[in-house]
Amino acid sequence: MGDPTGPATAPDATASAKNTLRADIRVARARRTEDDRRRDAEALAQQALQRYGRAAVVAAYASYGTEPGTSQLRASLRSAGVRVLLPVVRGDQLAWVVDVGADLARGGERGMPEPDGAAIGVGAGALVAAQCTVLLLPALAAGLDGVRLGQGGGFYDRLLTELPTYPAGPLRVAVVHDDEVLPTGAVPAQPHDLDALVDEVLTPSSGPDAHQA
Q1: Alpha-carbon distance 15 to 11, whole Å?
Q2: Among residues 125, 182, 202, 205, which is most buried (max CB within 10 A)?
Q3: How far is CA 48 from the centre of its chain?
Q4: How far is 66 from 69, CA to CA, in rounded Å?
């Protein structure tokens, strides 16, 4: 994915455009049927195993709501011998806990599913120390220019600005549905977004070379 291009937009207008796009994508996600979600989750698991099944350490996340399902994805990677890490919210940062496959409770600081167990560390430094080579990121959309549209909490934006870029740091992979991969310039970007670009995307239909930088 190359550098974003296009004319600069006023910060307030950009923030408004991001919120509009978020709302549109959330509506579209809510319209997906249970069969759609099941098929997407199965396909994501297959794609993740094909692409990242030989990684030693992958930082993932526990999906919830209408996000593309990651439960099977995580299980597939664990079965392949990958050490999977999951985030837990600690203040304004993400700490990391090893995913052992146990049921996750909705009870974190933001109501997200989080694992029990002691964190191995906090923030970007913990991922580097754990020798994580792939970071799977929740997203509402991702542009082919690397701009990621998150939920608006800012946790991953902060993390990405602190992480070394690939290959010194982990490969940054946004996980989205196929129709949420947007053309260059289609995802509104504020200055902090340009410091938190992703390297590639993972979708239910993406092959091992699809969407890579």
Answers
A1: 6
A2: 202
A3: 12
A4: 8
For 58, the 3-state DSSP assignment is: strand
112-140 as b/e: b if 16+ CB within 10 A: bbbbeeebeeebbebbbebebbbbbbbbb
Helices (H), the chain: 11-30, 34-52, 71-79, 123-129, 155-162
Asked if 121 and 128 touch (Cβ cutoff 8 Å), the reply is no
Q: C-alpha distances in angstroms, 76 versus 103, 130, 134, 156, 203?
A: 16, 20, 15, 24, 16
Tokens encoding 24: 């549109």
Task: List pLDDT tens digits, range 70-110.
Answer: 999 999 999 999 999 999 998 889 999 999 987 786 665 56
DSSP line for 180-203: GEE-TT-S---GGGGGS--SEEE-
